[in-house]
Sequence to fold (361 residues):
Amino acid sequence: MVRHLYVHIPFCPKVCPYCSFYKEASDRNKTQAFLDAVLSEAEMEADGLRPETVFFGGGTPTALSTPQLRYLIGGLRERIDFSGVREFTLEMNPATVSLEKAGAMLELGVNRVSMGVQSWDEELLKVLGRVHSGAQAERSYRILREAGVGNVNLDLIFGIPGQSRQQWLESLRRTIDLGPDHISAYCLTYEEDTEFFERFQRGEMAPESERDAGFFELAMEELEAAGYGQYEISNYAKAGRECLHNLGYWRAADYAGLGPSAVSTRAGWRRRNLADTAEYTRRVMLGEDRFESLERLDAGMLRAEQIALGLRTREGILPDTVDSRRGQALLAEGLLEPANDRVRLTRRGRLLVDEIAVELV
Ligand SMILES: C[S@@+](CC[C@H](N)C(=O)[O-])C[C@H]1O[C@@H](n2cnc3c(N)ncnc32)[C@H](O)[C@@H]1O
Ligand code: SF4
Fold:
């Protein structure tokens, strides 16, 4: 039985120059056909799917209007057994939050909201090309709480060009002061096919690895001290507020993905839907193959994924993974440590997660 469902909504109020998630600027004319395609795909995927977690990501799910979200969520509930859902997350952009929309989402069963704040600093928000101000993000957070959303995550980005240590510290403290249940703190990455990547290639911007490693350590210190446990490299939560959907993914559980670019991993197969809304919609409605790729996961690939994903988590990886001479050396060097019946990264090890993953896989 598959216990996790992801739905990709590929629309955004405006496309941010650093973001490589599949999305396009909202176009009201295409939306109804897209919603119907997702519902048709849900019918095809319903067998053997009884989600405990549902995650609406994107893009920006709240780029859809409230009636469109009602249509989509109501339609999914008619096609998929939602009776076992424990966590239902919706991603929001601070520019698309309203009391009316938040209330309607709660009525539809959403019980967790993830909002992309990225930074509270007006200059840095401009660098990131965001459509909202810090004040608007704070207002949106308060609206979510006023509407009764009991579980809120805020996304932050660090390592922004020109960002000072003081600005990052202030962003962390202002976030902590608001008291969200969960905080994601991502280091800016220069992803291919983004405007930032082009500017990086032209030499106009570049990651500053040493500065960013310092910012990562600052995040660990400040967030842990404020009661947010780091349960994955980029994710911190108050006790009991870890994201169940992402935990499933990091534990390499099977999941179903609906919508353009969504990935599904079911019974040893990984399928990726076409990252093209119009073509995805056309093919689903005609009953044609909607996949961009289809691959069989053999035991070696599954094991490599379990190590790479598990290493990023507080739970860690199975002890037999470090039986090798290199694994034992990493333990001796204090980069890995035993924890319960598993092995995980130490704080020092977390700074080198990518290098260590390569050595163990
Ligand atoms: C799919 S986005 C959804 C959030 C929502 N659309 C918004 O922007 O408010 C999820 C998160 O990924 C992070 N993200 C996107 N691109 C990134 C990049 N290049 N480097 C680091 N984090 C990134 C951002 O923090 C963003 O909030
Ligand atoms: S960060 Fe969010 S709003 Fe910006 S382009 Fe990516 S998904 Fe869209």
